Amino acid sequence: MEGDLATTVAKAITIYGTGAGIFLLFFVISEIFLRWREGKRPLGGEGLANIVLFPFGPLLEAVILNGLLIAGMFMLYNITPLRVPVELWTLPIYFLVGEFGYYWFHRIGHEVRILWADHSIHHSAEIYDFTVNLRHTPFSTVYRFIAWGPLALLGFNPLVLVLIAMSAPAFQSLCHTERVGRFAPWFEWLFCTPSNHAVHHASNPLYIDRNYGGLLNIWDHVFGTYQRLEDHTPPVYGLTRPVNSNNPGTILLHEFRYLARDFRAAPDWRTRLNVLFGKPGKTFEADGPGKGMRPAAGLEAAE
Amino acid sequence: MTPPDAWTIAAVIAFLALLASLRLSVPALEGSRLAGFIAHPALLLPLVLAVPMTVGLMMTGAVPVAPLSARDMVRADYGYWAGIAALITVATAELWLLWTPSMVARRFARPESREALKGLPILNLAFGAGFLALVWNAWS
């Protein structure tokens, strides 16, 4: 029975991912088309790097890591006596709980340094366009499991959880663009949109570590991490410690290099553990805090 | 008339999501208060799962591209209302493949991007039609 369910999960993920991929393809073609219409190079260096990085996510995630994720989630689901039925009336609960899982998966990806080393790959793009969604990270399944595992232990069906986990990145394909402005205020408050996701991708102090939601911003409001896009602070995209390269290898290893350097240079094990699991920007750094960081653009604008 | 069942609810939700999609797709409906009420954007939420899933099912040949064929196929297995839900969902997925994304982009475009986005509906139509023709050809 559970084996059948695991097969169904794998099949559903493939079908959903293929369908969402068609829309992603459309957005990437649109980006190239629109850049051409705007008189820009249809594919600049960063856009090409995004495309080159695309296989790292799907290949690693879809082929190897999602298999491990599903296996792990079913292991937890099988050892718990709890069951949350999949019925029409429980779907809204699944949705909110799935969003809760996505929120924490995303938040720990930003706020735990070893996970940020991976997730920062997606955030290293300095041009915010549809191709940014191709800039995948290889290890996000690991922290997805950390966030989603407890939900499987509570008896939530992994099939539904994994589908909801996939729906947020699929929806966010729409959001990586500066060409679309603000929607109605209530819509901006409730849903992930191009403007409030632009905040998430910005490195201005006002915007850092904000707007973690997948489809909805509900959990950002609950945990106080929501920030609207302010007219007085235009977003500056990319990392506070910029990559300054379109070489895919450099982009992939950028934060991992600093992580390894700081881990090696840390004076004791307590500091080393803090380097791995502390908040980025707040842990020990071999060359002192703030070196190589870009000036805090948002501060001047806000003041 | 076939009595309502759980699929009736699915069909109603699918219908409301179709109305909300049409509201985004047809510029003339932008200011209508009635449309704003019965085709509220919050009704688009189920489409985040339904549209990519339907497109994926079309690609695997599990669901036909023609909405009426999809209705007949699903009705044979799951009953009348499931067939209606399938008909509406396939039509909505095709609307999103062919037209709606470009109209959303145009409607909410920043002023500096409006000129470039004018050509997007044609690209959207060509991409969606090309994709549907390929799938149709592969499974017919």
UniProtKB/TrEMBL annotation, chain A:
Example GO molecular function: iron ion binding
Biological process terms in GO annotation: lipid biosynthetic process; membrane lipid metabolic process
Residues covered by the Fatty acid hydroxylase domain: 93-225
Region of interest (Disordered), ranges: 284-303
Cellular component terms per the entry's GO annotation: endomembrane system; membrane
TM region positions: 12-36, 48-76, 88-105, 145-166
Source organism, top-level taxon: Bacteria
Chloroplast listed as a keyword: no
Localization in the cell: Endomembrane system
PANTHER family linked to this entry: ALKYLGLYCEROL MONOOXYGENASE (PTHR21624:SF1), STEROL DESATURASE-RELATED PROTEIN (PTHR21624)
Protein name: Fatty acid hydroxylase superfamily protein
Organism of this sequence: Edaphosphingomonas haloaromaticamans
From TrEMBL, chain B:
Domain of life of the native organism: Bacteria
Keyword Transmembrane helix belongs to the record: yes
Keywords of the record: Membrane, Transmembrane, Transmembrane helix
Transmembrane segments: 6-26, 38-58, 78-99, 120-139
Protein name, per record: Uncharacterized protein
